[in-house]
Amino acid sequence: MKIEARLSRGLRDLFPEEMIPRQRMLDVIRGVYESYGFSPLETPAVEYLDVLSGSAGEEAQQSMFRVTNPEEEALGLRFDLTVPLSRVVSQYGQQIDFPFRRYQVSPVWRADKPAPGRFRQFTQFDIDSVGAPSEIADVEIMAAMCDTLDALQVGRYRVRFSSRKILNLLLSYAGIPEDQGVHVFRVLDKLDKIGLPKVKLELTTGYTDESGAPISGLGLSDRQAAQIETFLGITGETRAEALGKVRELFASVEGATAELDEIQTISDHLEALGYGSDRVMLDVSIARGLAYYTGPVFEANLLDAPEFGSVFAGGRYDNLVTRFGGQPIPATGASIGVDRLLAALVHLKRVSQPKTTAQVLVTAMDGSLMSEYLAIAFELRRAGVRTEIHVGRPKKLGKQLQRADRLQIPYVVIMGGDEAARGVVTLKQMEVGREESETVQSHEEWKAARFGQQEVPRTELAATLRRLLGH
Amino acid sequence: MKIEARLSRGLRDLFPEEMIPRQRMLDVIRGVYESYGFSPLETPAVEYLDVLSGSAGEEAQQSMFRVTNPEEEALGLRFDLTVPLSRVVSQYGQQIDFPFRRYQVSPVWRADKPAPGRFRQFTQFDIDSVGAPSEIADVEIMAAMCDTLDALQVGRYRVRFSSRKILNLLLSYAGIPEDQGVHVFRVLDKLDKIGLPKVKLELTTGYTDESGAPISGLGLSDRQAAQIETFLGITGETRAEALGKVRELFASVEGATAELDEIQTISDHLEALGYGSDRVMLDVSIARGLAYYTGPVFEANLLDAPEFGSVFAGGRYDNLVTRFGGQPIPATGASIGVDRLLAALVHLKRVSQPKTTAQVLVTAMDGSLMSEYLAIAFELRRAGVRTEIHVGRPKKLGKQLQRADRLQIPYVVIMGGDEAARGVVTLKQMEVGREESETVQSHEEWKAARFGQQEVPRTELAATLRRLLGH
After folding, report:
1. A109 touches chain B (CB under 8 A)
2. pTM over 0.90
3. Any idea what the CATH number is for the domain that residue B296 is in?
4. Residues A403-421: pLDDT tens digits?
């Protein structure tokens, strides 16, 4: 019976043109994280369902892929890397050397409604410092965010940070009971998406959205909504200026000084290390919806591709492992949405998308020279040049050049019987752009530039290619 | 309600000491494969159950993890990377530029009975050339196997190769009907495991194993079993010698010359490229149980760690995609069992297993110097030195040194108020082994060697560490 070759909805294959820049991106991120001494951890994709649930929001619960093994256990595919981390920290307890500074880059699965650019398997790249109460750990996460974005050459970006503690001061300031906080923060988190007027309505009386659906309000008073609006209006050219305005607004709130001193310390350290307000700004409107944050929160946006939203986000969560019944352990970290960041880099044309890793194609025209073609290919490989050899029956050169063209292989080596006898090969550059270059010195060189083709002694081929490829 | 932090059976977490050498190993393999112009592909972990089944043996079927999405579709976790590859090739058809030379490194899942060293999620690293009928493609796979093992410095190894075609000649030679071939090959594949006497019994009358279970025989005659024994006895110092003996034995078999010429061509190419009989031997006893092989088959063993079995195996399979109803497409490839190979490398002490990526720990004793400690850490990171900074409250130096010791961080930077004032730091090497070194030139250097401790001007710290770390 014929089986149809197909994928379930929301799943996709990643071909070389997607994988090559992705792999490069992951290598760069890994390099930055390791420079901070973060170390790799890997956890299995499959976890017990009760381990995955609990901390998950209702939405995450419904969108889980369920798994069973032959023992018929209730399992699921992880939907993030934070739950497995907290499971690991609880499970191994004091066998772990704290602070545990780990990174993990792994796929996660969420069976959300498929939409353009939204897939049910995607990759997260997380760093976390677990068992690190000091604000130094938060400084490091934010600095690593900047270093990563710089290393990826994303262009202009902005890391915005605030603190759950500032939001708690806001609750005191506006006289909102603490247990209403999470609901308020969840509304504030929508600010970028729905705008201030709707946020105010949702904080107070509620409203009816475009589709006619009623959005219920939290029942705050107009005065409270106005106080929140004043707070959200705080901006500053520099972190110091913004922090000064927060201090002023919360002057009367008990305990505000100590809490804000912590923000000050973080800001001062960042400044001293060269992470100025142009890259890391204090933005008190950052709420981060998740209930588990307890301290600083941060997210990063690309200024030249704002439509991609936050490409990097995180914060401090000092109580996460308590759901496994353990003592609270202070932790702080951030997560990159790899697929989203890569999509943004592609959009910004910051990455190239070659269709193959090969830099050279050694063509095969003459079957009797096959061992020569192979020898050339292996010579090049050993010289560090990524080389494909034509692995079909020898056939027309044109077809082989077309392949090099389609796969964007920059160079092609051609050798017929005559050339073999003379100990030379023809080296062809597939994309020729410098026809009338002023740097041309000789007739030979002019021909190479004009037609992208030059004759090279076999013995000099590897060195020539290394030079051309900038090795 | 408290949830117990635990993993389902056969699953495991990989901590930094396992992940760091693993990551290095994967980088090395990737480097070799890319030098051949193989390009990365990634497919989702979840496939339709009917896509996964079919080509899977019965054992693979029973050991599958079943998956469902919110749409209640029948899905499963892939158990190898060959089925997804054949699905991709069928699904995208002529959109793919053949030969499609891809590598994929990904986890696969098999819910086998857990045993020591055997896990239900493990990683495979596959290369395949799809759409490549030429024996050049097979030569490349075997050469890449050798290059990979060399690059990983596994010590002595042996790639053994044969061909399904030689086995088909054996069928003709011994007068065994073709449709019995797969069964015969499956018995021959057990040769390494159960030995020749039991193989002969299983080919003929069957036998009763140690546990008293009856092993049924294939019913071949004693003469046929003897012919197979003669065949299996073929050895040779060189591939040429072994091939000569095969030619002799099959002299009377129709079509043998042409089939054996193909092996000859492969062997000659390998020889010319420097892959001699010491590394790649012709071993006609290699059967590879899987039904889908159609041409050359190969596997690699580590001679210094034979107990790990084959760490690398593959072959040519020209009919795989036909189960999706397409035209046969010629393909050849090989797969590394990453976990098994890594376990062998650990056993052979060919890899180090540091507990962290950090090369230096910047300690923090004096809270008032925190911004100095941070500045040092960032200076080192920017100089390419992987640096951890103490991210707790400043505490006793002894505790911090103990951490460096436990995590095997080779160097520690120490700075108190006095040193800060003098613009110096103390650089301590955690493992001191060159007490009486003859290379010692000065008293300062002797002290450093004796106690692993030296005073370094702050401005020279990064350069000193880069030198010590061999950057």
Report:
1. yes
2. yes
3. 3.30.930.10
4. 999 999 999 999 999 999 9
